[in-house]
Design brief:
Length: about 200
Amino acid sequence: MPSKTLRDVIGLDAQPPRLSDSALILIDFQNTYRTGVMALDGAEEALAAAARLLERARAAGIPVVHVINDGGEGTPYDIRAHIGAISDEVAPVDGEPVVVKQFPDSFHATELEKTLKDLNIGGDLVLAGFMTHMCVTFTAQGAFNLGYRPTVVAEATATRSLPAPDGTALPSAALHEAALTTITDLFGLVVPEVDALQD
């Protein structure tokens, strides 16, 4: 039988927010993850889910913030080139801020917290993006540490297979689930799909 989560033990809320009461943070939906050395398993499906989530957020009139990772010129994260650009399906429109980061936690050494304060956002954040085990997890942790209430939309995230410490291959699905489980233990909530969020 599974143990209780830390959230359960310390009595944190288990009710997902309404989308209309939240801000949407889209993390690293860059072309980086669709092809080449950093291609993720399930990237296209996650991107399609994120596009549906973004459409709902815009219809609800809630704040949308895009986060993009800048790895420098000539890297797969070169935001000056097509490879590092935000994918067209979720590209920002006028008025939607873009925050540039260089660490997995989107709040670390960026303008994200200031941007949210300027938008008068102090509570619920809905997160989606790449990669589940890295920038999504650590942004959820960063949000939690700052007093926000993050909720991750699982179908709008994806990751890749990696070598485990013992040298065996850890499948992307296992890493994805482990990352989401880490988030739900303390840092935030996870909903399975876009439609699980009420307007």
